Amino acid sequence: MPIKIPDSLPATAVLESENIFVMTEYRAMHQDIRPLNVLILNLMPTKVITENQLLRKLSNTPLQIKVEFLQTASYTPQHVDTEHMESFYTTFEQVKDRWFDGLIITGAPLAFVPYEEVHYWKELCKIMEWAKTHVHSTMHICWGALAGLYYHFGIPTVEYPEKLSGVYSNTVLKKSSPLFRGFDDVFNAPHSREVGILKEDVDKVPELELIADSEAGGPTILKTTDSKNFFVLCHLEYDANTLELEYKRDFEKGLNPHIPYHYYPDDDPTKEPVVTWRSAGQLLFSNWLNYYVYQTTPYDIGNK
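and the corresponding structure tokens:
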């Protein structure tokens, strides 16, 4: 089944060129199927790249999904075309009286900014609080996951001695979880962050389950016991070249970054990166949508 997105969204042409089935709004209107309504709060400065990454993952499912993009009203992004934002993004005030099957909150390059000093922190808190009653299940990614864990449970972040950048092995701790159906016991995933959380802080919160972790970066994937919130600290949505672009960006800034771990063959940046996380990424999003959204969300999402 296809993913339903606006006809003129740039990702449409990109996904079609990759032989991914997308459906225009006009065609979807003529099908008697209720799509899953998924809202994406895109906090990344690279809006279009992040759109493409997430839509690739959401498209790999037999479900029809209607995707809408949300932006913050309290902070205007500096590195994206204004026309693009006006054409394809909405604000919280425009959706606050609606209900959604799923919500995805992306990461943001804010590792060293105290949460209360983030320009849009109050607005983000309002959205996360609203999601408790208006969203069936929410997936938080990287900084979005750290922010969600801090907001909902007061879990603090800890700074690493050096940036965690590369492809690391992660261990499935709860093999019976439907989120990991089809996963190997150990799976590779890109990590790109300067901060994380401690397992002992997670253990203090009875509403949280730690279901995957990594030796290098600690807790990797967590969920609430009611499955309404998922917190993913790795980047299984990353493209093959995302870590490379980040590495070259930091290198050009004179930050002397380490070569991303286990990413280039022989740790040689002149060689093409090897993707070892694509299947896990497809499974993560497909399983979340199927088992935690589609299978349990009511047909009339506005009448729960």
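(Above: one complete record from the training split.) Residues 266 and 273 are 10 Å apart (CA to CA).
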